[in-house]
Design brief:
Elements (H helix, E strand, L loop, with lengths): L3 E2 L5 E11 L5 E8 L2 E5 L2 E3 L6 H13 L9 E8 L9 E10 L11 H6 L2 E7 L1 H6 L4 E2 L3 H9 L8 E2 L3
Length: 165
């Protein structure tokens, strides 16, 4: 997939993310540190030229959290966030988000923590839905808690849902 240019000339980065859920319905999240503050988000990242969303998710899951041979589930959500990247290379990001059911594991990224920090990643952790609902933290997407409720109940959307920012 390549850069998408919107009708207003914005450079939109194509990206893929995974909603990684273990057998205890815990969700694996990544803590990003940006100048505007901390954000807990789904693992994933940019789709490289020639890569499908599923291939990007598999690569990113190995690099960021150490999950190998992930079974990529359905495309359940989409998200468009228009905000200039810190690097200045992009004006926003369009994400496709797939469900990935996984056994419980201790995250062990293939990238070093120095490499992850260069991508603004500083922590990985499993969260329960109750912890997400009670946390004084910023989640991406912002409505993560309410979006999770039907998914964890086994109610997957027939068509991907736009999560909003």
């Amino acid at each position: 997939m390549t850069e998408e240019t919107s009708t207003d000339g914005l450079r939109i980065r194509p990206a893929a993310r995974a909603l990684v859920v273990d057998p205890d319905d815990r969700v694996l999240l990544v803590r990003f540190e940006f100048p505007a503050g901390s954000r807990w988000a789904l693992p994933g990242g940019g789709i490289e030229p020639g890569e499908s969303a599923e291939e990007a998710i598999r690569r990113e899951l190995v690099e960021e959290v150490g999950l190998h041979d992930a079974a990529i589930g359905p495309h359940i959500w989409t998200r468009l966030h228009v905000i200039p990247f810190v690097s200045g290379h992009w004006d926003g990001q369009r994400e496709v988000i797939h469900l990935v059911r996984s056994p419980s594991f201790d995250p062990a990224p293939a990238l070093t923590w120095e490499e992850l920090a260069a991508e603004y990643v500083f922590e990985l952790r499993w969260w329960t839905i109750d912890e997400i609902g009670a946390a004084d933290a910023t989640f991406v997407p912002r409505a993560l808690h309410s979006l999770l409720t039907p998914v964890l109940a086994g109610e997957l959307p027939e068509q991907p849902i736009d999560t909003g920012v």
